[in-house]
Fold:
Amino acid sequence: EVQLVESGGGLAQPGGSLRLSCAASGFTFSNYWMSWVRQAPGKGPEWVANIKPDGSEKYYADSVKGRFTISRDNGKNSLFLQMNYLGADDTAVYSCVRSKLGDLDFWGQGTLVTVSS
Amino acid sequence: DIQMTQSPSTLSASVGDRVTITCRASQSINSWLAWYQQKPGKAPKLLIYKASNLESGVPSRFTGSGSGTEFILTISCLQPDDFATYYCQQYNSYSLFTFGPGTKVDFK
Structure:
């Protein structure tokens, strides 16, 4: 059974940092593109970042470019999102998502990030 | 950047109705489009990929069609479990994914 379990969310101050983690199991993690997708309260999903199976290519939404960094450790079946210079607009549930051909076929339940002073 | 629009934003329907939701892309995305269903407090669920391919385990009353810039999700006979919000997503390139704003299907 495919499982994606996020952790690392919580309360951060404006301008602060958080590092999200995602533990993957039930599939060959190193074969798949992975994504982070966030959803602000009452809003639709917003794609945040993608990473290639071998980690050699990474892409970001304009809204996070230069502030967030996606990475992975295939040996530990783990995906990460380092988030710096957080602002109120970054408040959302962040989900780790497996990408098949670009369609997003398995989603974690997400971890809530709240940015507030 | 590719922008996605959906219509209608809200759709009121009854069990047994045929429902259609339209998604439009600001430029051609060939068939690189997915449809998702989301219920409150839950992660989105993939229904359709590559515009018209039914994801495993999804009921056959869901069909997707279209290519280029216009796409349609059809629910042939609405069931009680189908009242939810539906999103389209383009994936023409791994460098940029974009979701539509969503269509909420609620009870008439």
Notes: The CA atoms of residues 26 and 102 of chain B lie 16 Å apart. Chain B has no helices and eleven strands. The first strand of chain B starts at residue 4 and ends at 7. The interface with chain A takes residues 1, 32, 34, 36, 38, 43-46, 49-50, 55, 85, 87, 89, 91-92, 94-102 of chain B (CB under 8 Å).
